[in-house]
Amino acid sequence: MIKVGDKLPAGKLQEFIEVEGNGCSLGPNTFEVEASTAGKKIAIFGLPGAYTPTCSAKHVPGYVEKYDELKKAGIDEIWCVSVNDAFVMGAWGRDQKTAGKVRMMADGSADFAKATGLTLDLTARGMGLRSNRYSMLVVDGVVKTLNIEGPGKFEVSDAATMLGQAQQILR
Questions:
Q1: Catalytic: which of 13, 33, 55, 105?
Q2: Is 24 a catalytic residue?
Q3: Are the C-beta atoms of 37 and 141 separated by less than 8 Å?
Q4: pTM of the full predicted structure?
Q5: CATH for 83
Q6: Which pLDDT tens digit goes with each residue over 147-166?
Q7: pLDDT tens digits, 3-29
Q8: Which end of the chain is more exposed for a tag (fewer CB within 10 A), N or C?
C-alpha cells in the first residue's frame, strides 16, 4: 500500500471534458498521473463510487465548498478519483457542480486503486472492486499526507481535514 513519502504510481486516469481547449477534445481524455502531478500541489480524494450516498451528500460537496480555502492554502488542483467510467464521472460532476473546482477523474478499471493498494472489495454488495475512501496531499507526485478511512467511515478524508493539512505543510 502507498504511504507518505512514496511517489504516486505511473498510470492513467480519464476525465470527461465538455469544452474544447488546451489540446483537449470533447469527451473522455486520458491523463498520465506522473505528468499531471509534476510540479503541482494536488489534493486527491478517492471514494467508492459516483452517486453513492456519502460520496454525493458529503465527500464531493465538502471539497467543492472548501475550494477557495484550499486554493488559498496552496493547493493547485483537487481531484476526485473513483472506479467509474469517465462518462459517469462527468455526469456526476455536472450534478455536483464541480466545474472549475474539482477534477472528476475516472479509474474505470481500478488500475490506479490497485497500483496504490487502496482498493475496497465490494463484490458481495454487487459493486465489484472499488477504491477505498481516502484523501492525500500530493506535492510534485510525492504523497505528503494520506488519510485512509476505516470501513463505512467518513472521518479523516474530508475537505476540512485536507485544508488543515495543506495549511500546515504548504506554508
A1: 55
A2: no
A3: yes
A4: 0.94
A5: 3.40.30.10
A6: 999 988 999 999 999 999 99
A7: 999 999 999 999 998 766 666 557 799
A8: C
